[in-house]
Amino acid sequence: MSLVFKLLLPSIFLLISQCVFSQQPNSMQDEYRFIQHLDARGNSKEALYLLDQFSADGVSYQDSINYLKGWILYGMKDLEASSFYLTKVMPRSRFFEKSNFFGAYNFAYLGRTQKSKELISSFENHDSPEIKAMSNFQLAGISLLDRQLETFTSLAEKFSGQYSYLIVEEQNLVSYHERILAHKHKSAFVAGMLSVAVPGLGKIYAGKTSEGISSLLYVGALTAVSLDLYNRLGNQHPLFYISAALTSVFYVGNIWGSAAAVKRQNIEFNYEIDQRILLDMHIPLRKLYP
Fold first, then answer.
1. What is the model's pTM?
2. Dist CA 171 CA 79 (whole Å)
């Protein structure tokens, strides 16, 4: 693409938008399709620019604009802005179910699970069994994200296995629930106390065996050097003071590191599980709404 064309591109889009949008409403559908075409080709910013110029007549097109803005922003991974537009789509729109589900998913991904549950709850009395099954599945995923295990159990009882695009993910959620139940939440205090008794033992307790062995070796080596200096030079010699100070620093650091290792291990476990839950919540949505 030449430099001149790049410079003229914004003006070309503005000219197109002014010409088309000044026409009768029956030309709006063609322009809407053109914007969709731009987005499909990866020109998301240009598509959003044209949507901002779209002065639609009628509520149906306003819903379509909000949906398309939200969907484009979703593709650009701007989930906050995407949710803003998707949740403005009204129930009268043919895009409502898709918009509501993806808006709810965005909020769940952003950690705003209460807002996500509120959106999905709007399908509680929906006529379609398929939509009800999807909403139940999404609520089950959210309950796992919130670690509301009893709520998940009651929702999982409604997993029917009837819809092919949900079967694997329903099974996955059940397995994540079992992993969460089996996971032993370890105590940072216990890890610290273990490392007081034996350097590195707290890290082994946290599941960081190699780090624990390393801590035991270097604290043990420093302690041995300090004892040797004490025996040979006495407790008044500067070298003994330096060695003892280093040993104390590493010993205290080993205690702090053990407590931190437990916290890190818990964070890593929860992050891994949450990412897997979010992925399995997302896959059926993309299958149902490609």
1. 0.74
2. 27
